[in-house]
Design goal:
Shape: globular
Order of helices and strands: HHHHHHHHHHHEEH
Strand order of the largest sheet: 1-2
Bound molecules: fe (ii) ion
Number of domains: 1
Number of helices: 12
CATH architecture: Orthogonal Bundle
Number of strands: 2
Length: 306
Amino acid sequence: MPDTAGSRTARVDFRATSDPALLESADRGEANLLTYRELYSLWERQQWAVQDLDFTQDRIDWHERIGADERYARMYGLSSFFVGEQRVTAELGPMMRAAPSEDMRIFLSTQIADEARHVAFFDRFYSEVGVLHADGLDERLAETSEHLNPEFGVLFDELLKRRVDRLAVEPEDLEALVEAVTIYHMVIEGMLALTGQHFIIDYNEREGTLPAFVEGFTNVARDEHRHVAFGARFLRELAREDPRHVTAIQRALGEVAPIAEAVLKPKWAPDDDAVELFGVTIAETRAFALKALERRMKVIGLVAAA
Ligand SMILES: [Fe+2]
Ligand SMILES: [Fe+2]
């Protein structure tokens, strides 16, 4: 593995989030997790603007340096992120409202703004680079959705949405919130998004392609580490409060793990974990995701169930 990947996960601003996946001490279950208010303050210091990115070189790379087959192969990752960011933006409102303390709600409100910015980032990348024919955000989302796996729909529109719909009508159902945070922050952001980001950024850095995309996507990854750090703190606190919450975390992980695994792999990829996509095998990708989950679960006080 080239050291661009190592140097990125060692970045001071990434580690400042206290996401346990970035801390070796988490292997022993130790991490100095930031408080909700400290995470809020970090959000104030870690702002960035989609409008500041210049996609001129990215447009040249996409049409002139990246071949048609590779453009098609890249559409799986791009589409999963673009649509995934739209889904998590839409689902976070009821979770924020159901959070039991004001400090949690303040942080989750910043996260809603972040997720909306991530949608705007992909929308701007698609339109400036000319990735699709469609014009307008809704139209682009519809066109790019054709590249998704069926399991993507199960994860977001069934497993996550069912919990969020419950919270929308029963905001005091703390067990439903624990399950929703497990699926949202630990699996979707922690295992899937941060793993995909890690390998997609790494591949582009090695190839020297899409510089503005890499810059923006690195900012997205930093935001995700901050979100996952919130999830780790929340789940550790609630797991210590009530053993039923530990059971809820395990139940949610057990239910989503097989689906999450299928989302990591494009539907056109061969059924062979040793085959390389963008320079890494599916097995390596899965190992990276599981290591991150294991560290976070240890810090929360659980043994990884997946
Ligand atoms: Fe996001
Ligand atoms: Fe996020």
